[in-house]
């Protein structure tokens, strides 16, 4: 994982943006009580490593709910392989992409076939999409999942470099005619104006 960049000399208050993103993620995990397994898609994991260190995430989370570390968070990467965990709660933190929903569905179907009783939470970054929710409905899993959003619109890469983390935005706008990524960019710019 990448080193969290030093943002002290940034022309904008990027440290506040990073701290707000940290607080929002910890808040999501805090509201899901008990031991949980956090499953993150690989691309998002790289972005999150610029926001919060895994060790800081575990330590902060343990302090917030006043439980020892073993009752905190297990961290896994999303793949087609089933999630191996003893946790009764699985939290997926993923970008809004249909192919990632298929991985989640595969994981849940595998648990159901084994008779495992788990609580599932899917948090979309930065926001949910109808297409992704449709995939969950088609797989008849939407009733088993609590859906939320983690509004990570902008990632400070360095003191003078920001990323919207929208690697498919150009294709979506120009080829697919989907201007949804422009909404994300506008939301990120608004966030910068607030700080």
From TrEMBL:
InterPro entries assigned to the protein according to its UniProt record, in alphabetical order: Sec-1-like_dom1 (IPR043154), Sec1-like (IPR001619), Sec1-like_dom2 (IPR027482), Sec1-like_sf (IPR036045)
GO biological process: vesicle-mediated transport
SUPFAM superfamilies: Sec1/munc18-like (SM) proteins
Family: Belongs to the STXBP/unc-18/SEC1 family.
PANTHER family from the UniProt entry: VESICLE PROTEIN SORTING-ASSOCIATED
Name the UniProt record assigns to this protein: Putative sec1-like protein
Organism: Lupinus albus
